[in-house]
Amino acid sequence: MKNNDNAYHNFVKPIVVLVAICFVVTFALAYVYGITAPIIAENTAKAANEARTELLADAKGAFTMYADENSNTDKLVVLEEKKVYATDCYTADNGSGMVVTVKSNSYGGLLTAMIGIDKDGAVTAVKVTAHSDTPGVGTKAQEPGHLAQYKGYNAIGNVEIKADPAINHVSGASISSGAIHKAVCCALEQFKANGGVN
């Protein structure tokens, strides 16, 4: 009988206690997630809309997510499978242009860039919103001075940065420069695929 008591106290009781703790912690995490998830989603959407407004000021903050006549959003441009592709496209409600979000393979992995394009198909601004590039090296390609050269850019099809004399790449950050350039080209292709701004 003593062996059964020892077995219960040494093996069964700790397992029951651990399972109870795991259940309580899991419930608490699910509860907290249920409360915070909508707040996080709202803040993320607000930050994205502020970035769109910054990239295309003429839109005055009013955008609608692109969808074709059948409400599909699956017509987003892919330049290179899993390496350069549009993730969303918002058109300005007043027809002043669009903002396209693109993921592009960079030195540290995929970077996310938002590209503003005016109604005539020229880039208004570029903003990198997420990346894993090396600070101080790859991030040089994300500095405002480098990104400013894309203002007015509209050369659809010039995917290779070294083949485009209008754009300079950053020495020591050529992969990151190329990733941003491909993101801009993908956004311009998205503009073309949408038939411009309707």
What does this structure look like?
This protein has 198 residues and is of the alpha+beta class. It has a domain at 57-193. The protein has three helices and six strands; from the N terminus they run αββββββαα. The protein has helices at 2-55, 144-147, 174-193, and strands at 63-65, 78-80, 84-92, 97-106, 109-118, 123-130. Strands 1, 2, 3, 4, 5 and 6 form a six-stranded antiparallel β-sheet that branches. A hairpin with a 4-residue loop joins β3 and β4 (97-106). The longest helix is centred in the N-terminal third of the chain and has 54 residues, at 2-55. It is elongated, with a radius of gyration of 24 Å. The termini are far apart.
* Rough outline: elongated
Q: DSSP strand (E) fraction?
A: 15-25%
Radius of gyration: 24 Å
SSE order = HEEEEEEHH
Main sheet summary: 6 strands, antiparallel
Topology:
Blueprint: H1 2-55, E1 63-65, E2 78-80, E3 84-92, E4 97-106, E5 109-118, E6 123-130, H2 144-147, H3 174-193
Antiparallel strand pairs: 1-3, 2-3, 3-4, 4-5, 5-6
Short recap of the structure:
The chain is an alpha+beta fold and 198 residues long. It has helices at residues 2-55, 144-147, 174-193; strands at 63-65, 78-80, 84-92, 97-106, 109-118, 123-130.
What features would you highlight for this structure?
198 residues, alpha+beta, six-stranded antiparallel β-sheet, 3 helices, 6 strands, 39% helix
